[in-house]
């Protein structure tokens, strides 16, 4: 898509600097992790505060930025804007970021998903890469351009949509569904009814309607993750949702879009993360515990059943936390006992 196409989608779009109408943009990325040849949205100081937090780069010279006009007007005469201006390749303003996000995400979604083949198994078209040592049951659908690794077992009724990667020695139980652009690591176990990569629950309210934010970024599940029956991990909007290595999710767990779950977390039944929330490594969540949107919890934090961490709250790493060097049985006992106490 060209920069000039954004003006067609939203008449309020106005370039502030570097107005090259033929400049190509390949997609939308997240303000916390801007990607080259994409653009991000900055709606408020909260967005700016977290700019690049998940990125190793301090400068984003191949990335564009779109400001909400009200926020831009509040900072345009400040040193803050001059600093931001030095980071990005181009900048623009729109009247309403939430509205523009819905308009701009749709064509990129159509480009990624519009022509995928959901009807014919990729193996029939010689367009799926399934290792000869994988065990695939009858009544399994594997989409085009999907990859299944050595020793992986996929049981009856599972649906692996196009453009999915599954590593070695993973087990996919019956009636599990994995949406496009999801990546599953080695040694994982996904139990019956699990859904990976469905659209996140992302809508922006504008002029009496809930308008859809079209999700572009899929899911990454690292090695040795186990996900219990009927649990769901939603695809990311402009950054992949991620489940870290060794994490274990119970039945009926919900992980929302853009969430970043650390390594070796444990989450009991009906625990959940709302969109864009994060946990560091070795966190534990009792039944029904959860994080509100944008909440972040540090390494080793543990939460009793029904505990809720407020929206955008930041909880530092626990002074006492699970020790990865301790014996497995000791670690489990400490985890269970510590869940009985929570000190906010």
Helix content estimate:
10-25%
Instruction: Label the structural class.
Output: alpha/beta
Instruction: Please give the count of helices.
Output: 6
Largest sheet at a glance? 10 strands, parallel
Rg to the nearest angstrom? Answer: 21 Å
Oligomer: single chain
The shape, in one word, is globular
Number of strands: 35
Q: What would the CATH topology of the largest domain be?
A: UDP N-Acetylglucosamine Acyltransferase, domain 1
Give average pLDDT, whole number.
Answer: 91
CATH architectural name of the largest domain: 3 Solenoid
What would you say this structure looks like, in words?
The longest helix has 17 residues, at 97-113. The chain has two domains: 3-113, Udp-n-acetylmuramoylalanyl-d-glutamate--2,6- Diaminopimelate Ligase, Chain: A, domain 1; 129-338, UDP N-Acetylglucosamine Acyltransferase, domain 1 (3 Solenoid), CATH 2.160.10. The strands form five sheets. It has a ten-stranded parallel beta sheet, with no helix packed on it. Strands 7-10-13-16-21-24-27-30-33 form a nine-stranded parallel beta sheet, with no helix packed on it. The protein is built from six helices and 35 strands. By secondary structure, it is an alpha/beta fold. The protein is 16% helix and 27% strand. The radius of gyration is 21 Å and the shape is globular.
Question: Could you name the key traits of this structure?
Answer:
Udp-n-acetylmuramoylalanyl-d-glutamate--2,6- Diaminopimelate Ligase, Chain: A, domain 1; 9-stranded parallel beta sheet; disordered C terminus; UDP N-Acetylglucosamine Acyltransferase, domain 1; single chain; 35 strands; globular; 344 residues; 10-stranded parallel beta sheet; alpha/beta; 6 helices
């Amino acid at each position: 898509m060209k920069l000039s196409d954004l003006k067609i989608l939203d008449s309020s779009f106005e370039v502030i600097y570097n107005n090259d109408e033929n400049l190509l943009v390949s997609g939308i990325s997240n303000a916390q992790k801007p990607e080259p040849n994409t653009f991000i949205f900055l709606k408020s100081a909260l967005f700016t505060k977290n700019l690049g937090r998940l990125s190793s780069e301090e400068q984003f010279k191949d990335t564009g930025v779109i400001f909400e006009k009200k926020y831009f007007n509040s900072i345009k005469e400040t040193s803050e804007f001059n600093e931001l201006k030095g980071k990005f390749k181009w900048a623009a303003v729109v009247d309403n970021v939430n509205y523009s996000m819905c308009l701009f995400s749709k064509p990129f979604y159509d480009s990624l998903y519009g022509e995928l083949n959901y009807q014919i198994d990729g193996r029939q078209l010689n367009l799926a890469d399934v290792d000869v040592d994988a065990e695939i049951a009858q009544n399994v659908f594997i989409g085009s351009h999907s990859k299944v690794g050595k020793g992986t077992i996929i049981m009856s009724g599972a649906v692996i949509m196009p453009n999915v990667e599954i590593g070695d020695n993973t087990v996919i139980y019956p009636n599990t569904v994995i949406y496009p652009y999801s990546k599953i690591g080695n040694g994982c176990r996904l139990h019956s009814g699990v859904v990976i990569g469905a659209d996140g629950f992302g809508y922006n309210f504008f002029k009496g309607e809930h308008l859809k934010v079209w999700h572009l970024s899929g899911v990454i599940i690292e090695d040795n993750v186990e996900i219990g029956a009927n649990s769901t991990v939603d695809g990311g909007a402009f950054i992949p949702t991620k489940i870290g290595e060794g994490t274990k999710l119970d039945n009926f767990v919900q992980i929302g879009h853009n969430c970043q779950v650390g390594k070796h977390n444990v989450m009991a039944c009906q625990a959940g993360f709302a969109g864009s929330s994060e946990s560091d490594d070795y966190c534990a969540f009792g039944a029904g515990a959860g994080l509100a949107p944008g909440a972040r919890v540090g390494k080793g934090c543990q939460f009793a059943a029904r505990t809720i961490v407020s929206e955008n709250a930041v909880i530092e790493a626990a002074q006492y936390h699970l020790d990865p060097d301790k014996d497995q049985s000791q670690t489990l006992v400490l985890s269970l006992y510590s869940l009985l106490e929570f000190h906010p």
